[in-house]
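User: My advisor, Dr. K., asked me to get a structural model of this assembly before our group meeting. I'm new to this, so sorry if the format is off. These are the inputs:
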Amino acid sequence: DSGVTQTPKHLITATGQRVTLRCSPRSGDLSVYWYQQSLDQGLQFLIQYYNGEERAKGNILERFSAQQFPDLHSELNLSSLELGDSALYFCASRAPDSYEQYFGPGTRLTVT
Amino acid sequence: QKEVEQDPGPLSVPEGAIVSLNCTYSNSAFQYFMWYRQYSRKGPELLMYTYSSGNKEDGRFTAQVDKSSKYISLFIRDSQPSDSATYLCAGSISSGSARQLTFGSGTQLTVLP
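Assistant: The format is fine. Below is the predicted structure of the whole assembly, which you can bring to the meeting.
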């Protein structure tokens, strides 16, 4: 158990809908990263937050957004969902002044 | 060209074998390298990380980085069936606070009893 929690574990929704994925980092970790894992693209970095502020963006679509709250949990919002958004979504957290990222168990999103 | 290239396998070895997993990278700014193990449909589990060039050993696992050739390796000694998983290598830039990881596509390993 990495100490990073994610909810829900599974999500099935229809095209055009909006969903919210939630992540709680390890105690003491200020950085939260979101990654998407699909069969064709592998594990790709989406966005990072540090202590409530956005710090880096990767291959994140404009339909996707995220935020980190004062209690350091983070939410990833996916809107206008398309079939191609079906994937595993992971969050990871990192302690200040460290390099190791610890991943949560992921949320499996299926768009039908 | 992807920044981190990894042979997807699959790789199948008998129990007790020494396993060599390899990646190449193209981004010269990478200074930290990680190896993760991912069981099917689970979150990646950090195995080891190394900084710059050199070797690092942890139990049955040895991580090796050769920055001159942009080559990173993970060796598993006395492999066990429980080592059957997908192994992901990743690189990270050390400067700044972002430090996001760039992953290879993963190598699927099966250790046969």
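One thing worth pointing out at the meeting: Residues 30 and 41 of chain B are 28 Å apart (CA to CA).

User: Perfect, thanks a lot.
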